[in-house]
Amino acid sequence: MHTHGRDILEIADELATAYVEVFTAPPFEHRDPEETRIAFRKRLGTDAERDGFQAWIERSEDGRIAGFLTGWTTPAPFRTDRSYGSVLDRIGREQVEELLIGAYEVDELGVLQHARGTGLARRLLETATRHHNRAWLLAWNQNHDAVAFYRHLGWQEPEVRGPETDILVFVAGAPDLRKESVTS
Question: For tag attachment on the chain, is the N or C end more exposed, with fewer CB atoms within 10 Å?
Fold first, then answer.
């Protein structure tokens, strides 16, 4: 596995190709591949300039990208562009400040079809979050495999304090968020 900072831009086109392969396949088949490529490539250029940006790339024996993860430490104030506004609405400012600000934000995690079932997604997550007390990520509620995977790994969902959205928030390293069940 290779770690990148801003030098990720040297392989941006190759990474964009891998991103499109992951994020236009089911359950994302409704996405246009060229629009997805352009949007990711533009976002990557901006994201690579963020303080603390890191990317991890693992390659297959044939040299192709098998999986990738990008992220950074979430700064204050919390942004409201992209999906951030939905996150703020969903879990509320108090939980955002307690759980997300200063935590490692996993922005993109993808494993290509030829590398699925190898434990690569778990290794990427563990590698990226190893030196962070807390981490968080978003998942689309229709990406059932990813949602089940994060739950299986013990990532937790903060209490929903606002409107339900199609974006789920998962955190790791936070205090236990499960409500204690009361029996009578």
Answer: C
> How many angstroms separate the CA atoms of 111 and 133, rounded?
24
List the alpha helices (DSSP H) in the chain.
12-23, 33-47, 84-95, 120-129, 144-152
What residues form DSSP beta bridges with 56? Answer: 3, 69
Prediction pTM value = 0.90
User: Is the backbone peptide bond immediately before 27 cis, with ω within 30 degrees of 0?
Assistant: yes
102: three-class secondary structure by DSSP: coil
Cα angle 62, 56, 120 (rounded to 5 degrees) comes to 65
135-140 sheet: strands from edge to edge: 2-4, 54-59, 65-73, 104-111, 135-140, 167-172
Q: Which two tokens stand for residue 71?
A: 């992220």
Spatial CB neighbours of 28, under 8 Å, sequence gap ≥ 6: 22, 143
What mean pLDDT do residues 19-25 have?
97
